[in-house]
Amino acid sequence: METLQENPLMGHQKVFHSLIYGLLIQLHRICEQGHEFYLQASYYSNRKFSLGGGTLSFFRHVNGRVVVALACGQVAIFRRNPEGEWDLSQYHLVQLGLPHQSVRQLAVVGDKVWCGYRNKIHVLQPHDLQVVHTLEAHPRRESPVRQMAWLGEGVWVSIRLDSTLRLYHAHTYQHLQDVDIEPYVSKMLGTGKLGFSLVRITSLLISSNRLWIGTSNGVIISVPLSDNGSSMGAVVPRGSIMLPGAGVRIPPVPGSFVPYCTMAHAQLSFHGHRDNVKFFVAVPGNGGTSAASTPSEAMSASVSSIGGQLKQPSAMLVISGGEGYVDFRIEDDNEPRDGASHLLVWQLLTDIPGNPLG
């Protein structure tokens, strides 16, 4: 008889939650102004902490370091002591900008962390505790970096209140491509429908070799990623009139993968939200199962017959979160507005030859 073993990741998760619990208590010393933050986890009961003006924005773990973005223009870096335990009394602060401006985004890129501060991206090396490079993602300081997503040799970046995505090389920091999604959305759904002339990017995710884009109008777009030059179509040089989905393209170094994309291959979901797409999450799924599957069928699909070891996931579930649900194919202005939070789930099969979503 097969037995299910406890997922070893749960132990690491408990340790990490313990780290964050102590970390939140420690951060209140960094800045002066009062602020409150709620931690919700299965191990704590909605405990409330006073963090000061250095409100916790984002945190990322990379190679034994925890990097925390703060609202006072700093990042805090925590590490383990010689005994292997997290040392919350000794941390290093890196000043990225003025105290009244937040560090709004963090993205792990290899062994470095890209930090979004206003319109700039500071590339931080957590082990050396220093910024190794700074790039300007937008010419206006009032246009801050909003989202970042990394794959291979490229990092996709979105800007607040902007419909254009920017691709940067993960190591040389070159600006490789610009992709404007507004013409595509307007073409698919019409410029007058729910104000689609004001498309703004609010969420970004890379999963299953696809770039998932969420907008301020609740629209969700999935674009395949490829560094194959033959599949990219025409690219307009900088300084020329930009065509929809076109941009600046620099040939990649042989043997590397630069995640270029083109809106000519994009897919728009007619299922969306009534307001901003708040977030995306990708989790392993069970190939061949559906909402109609029983819990025992779903569990047996994820456990092999040898030692109860988990199989390599044959599917990924991509989940979007936002307020309300809308089917963009149906026009009903008299329908009451549903403001409840909704989750939309897509299943991407990865083990079927020729599957366009794999």
From TrEMBL:
**What Pfam family is a match, any one?**
WD40_2
Q: Which Gene3D superfamilies match?
A: YVTN repeat-like/Quinoprotein amine dehydrogenase
Q: Share an example GO biological-process annotation for this protein.
A: vesicle-mediated transport
Cellular component (GO) terms are: cytoplasm
Taxonomic superkingdom: Eukaryota
* Molecular functions per Gene Ontology: JUN kinase binding; kinesin binding; MAP-kinase scaffold activity; signaling receptor complex adaptor activity
Q: What is this protein called?
A: Uncharacterized protein
